[in-house]
Amino acid sequence: MAEGLSSFWGPVTSTIECCETNYSHSSYIAEFYNTLSNVPAIILALMGLINALRQRFEKRFTVLHISNMILSIGSMLYHATLQQVQQQGDETPMVWEMLLYMYILYSPDWHYRSTMPTFLFLYGALFAVLHAVVRFGIGFKVHYVILCLLCIPRMYKYYIHTENISAKRLAKLYVATLFLGTMFWLCDRLFCKQISGWPVNPQGHALWHIFMGFNSYFANTFLMFCRAQQRGWAPKVVHFMGVLPFVKIEKPKTQ
Questions:
Q1: pLDDT tier at 5 (50, 70, 90 boundaries)?
Q2: Kind and range of the H or E element at 237?
């Protein structure tokens, strides 16, 4: 804790702390950089939500972008307070979001339409209840990684069946940001003792937040393109101000 600053939120009760000095800039924000680094993810999710609503994509994408914002807000509250309740408020939406990705990825080929959303909803609700009672610790990380791994084969299938070069570039950006973000997260976790002795802390966990914000945006945009292609909406990838990609569609008049 920085000299002269006190903790507004009281003693740390969360089970995970990152390689950042607590309350170094404000007595109201435990981990300053890890808190503010969630802002880009919220902005990107908001932009994705506006595009989904403006072009009347399916509601699943509206929910997906909103879930991205909820996850980032939960992460902000957790890193700002380092309290156990807020940690659960960060981790539970992480699982919910992965369940939503699983639905979007696998539902087009699922013949029994009501069974998948029902099962995923009950699974998410059960996990939320259990996680409110039990501190899973390493079990949560293993569980989350398994959910992520279940999504990768389907993402790869979408990639190899997509011929559009711009859409393939989105998938590659998704992989690149995931890899870079994971590397920064691992370095922050494994080499904190060495990093703490450096003149400047690179804030690996904060960089993880930033890269994962872009990662979610690229993944969502790619999935929106693939779904629009499945629906025959003639999707194409265009760029906002020549930089940020988004999907533009043309629905048949009958729709």
A1: low
A2: strand 236-240
Angle value at C-alpha 100, between 39 and 108, nearest 5 degrees:
130
pLDDT in tens, 112-155: 778 888 999 999 999 999 988 887 778 888 999 999 999 999 99
The pLDDT of residue 254? 63
203: which 2 tokens?
């804030």
Buried b (16+ CB within 10 A) or exposed e, 43-77: ebbebbbebbeebebeebbebbbbbbbbbbbbbbb
Q: What is the CATH number of domain 32-250?
A: 1.20.1070.10
Give the C-alpha separation, 212 to 34, whole Å.
13
Instruction: Using pLDDT thresholds of 50, 70 and 90, give the confidence band for residue 44.
Output: very high
Annotated binding site: 20, 22, 31, 79, 205, 209
Residue whose token pair is 């389907």: 154
Angle between helices 59-81 and 39-54 (to 10 degrees): 170
| Domain locations in the chain as residue ranges | 32-250
Q: What distance in Å separates the CA atoms of residue 205 and residue 20, rounded to the nearest whole number?
A: 9
Task: Give the residue ranges of the annotated binding site for Zn(2+).
Answer: 79, 205, 209
pTM of the entire predicted model: 0.92
User: Which residue is it, tokens 């990609």?
Assistant: 245
d(CA 184, CA 214) in angstroms, rounded, equals 14
Q: What does the pLDDT look like over 226-236, one tens digit per residue?
A: 999 999 999 99
Per-residue confidence band for 4, with pLDDT thresholds at 50, 70 and 90: very low
Residues contributing to the annotated binding site for Ca(2+) = 20, 22, 31
Q: Measuring CA to CA, which residue among 39, 45, 57 is closest to residue 97?
A: 45
